[in-house]
Each structure stands twice: as structure tokens, then as C-alpha cells.
Amino acid sequence: MMTTQRNEEVTHQAILALDEGLSDRFIELDPNGYFLIKVDLITKQIVVEHFSNDLDDIGRAVDPETGELLSCKGSKKRVPLSVFRASSAKQMGIQLTEGGPPCPITRLDHALYMGRELQRAQECLITGEEYVQD
């Protein structure tokens, strides 16, 4: 029993280390924009806001109106193009990918990232824990 538990801990630590290293790689942004994912514990829903962006010559997100670089910690309040609400990760994924055209996700790596984040958001919705988007 102790060996199994220790192996699980080692495996868990190895996976965390692998994922952290993979998070440091260059990621090409989706030209269709980005998403902010939130969990609304009052309505028991996952909320996804879709924002537009343009990309500069080296692939950085810039404000389509001003051309200024977008910052994760910027103070400028942006208005989403669309807001999606769903009760589960699967329901949200279907809205994002099977809803009316055009699909707001154009890159496969972006779709996979969204799936992972929606699963994390769903788990927080179930447990009542705070969700922080990666």
C-alpha cells in the first residue's frame, strides 16, 4: 500500500513538473481573439467572454482600435464580442465549437487549451472552489 501511494505521489510530481515546463513554451495566439473564463457560483454556470484582438508583426496581441499591446493586468476595460454561459464544460465546448459560424476558435492548440480550462472550471463549479484561469 505504501509503495503504491509513493508511486502515485512521484507520478503526480512528475506530471506537474512536465506541465510547468510545457507552459514555458512559445504559444502562437489565435487571430480570432482570446477568452476569459469565469465560474459564477450563484447561477452555477461557467461563463466565457470572447474578446477580439489583432496581432502585431511578431504575434503579440494588440487592441484592434488603438494598436496598443494588450496586457493581462491592464486597467482598460474591454467589451467582449460574445458572452457564453453553460452548466458544464461539455455544454460550453459544444457552444464554442458547434454554435453558429464563425467558430471563435481557429487554432487546434487553442481548442485543446480551452477544453482543459473548461474542465478545471467545471471542477471548481462542482466543489465551490475559486477558479483562476491558467
Structural account:
With 134 residues, this protein is α+β, with helices and mostly antiparallel strands. The protein has one domain (28-127). Helices cover 39% and strands 17% of the residues. Helix 2 (89-98) runs antiparallel to helix 3 (108-127). The longest helix is centred in the N-terminal third of the chain and has 22 residues, at 2-23. The radius of gyration is 17 Å and the shape is globular.
Which secondary structure elements does this structure contain, and how are they paired or packed?
Layout (H helix, E strand, L loop, with lengths): L1 H22 L10 E7 L4 E7 L2 E2 L5 E2 L19 E5 L2 H10 L9 H20 L7
Antiparallel strand pairs: 1-2, 2-5, 3-4
Helix pairs in contact: 2-3
In brief:
By secondary structure, this protein is an alpha+beta fold. It has helices at 2-23, 89-98, 108-127; strands spanning 34-40, 45-51, 54-55, 61-62, 82-86.
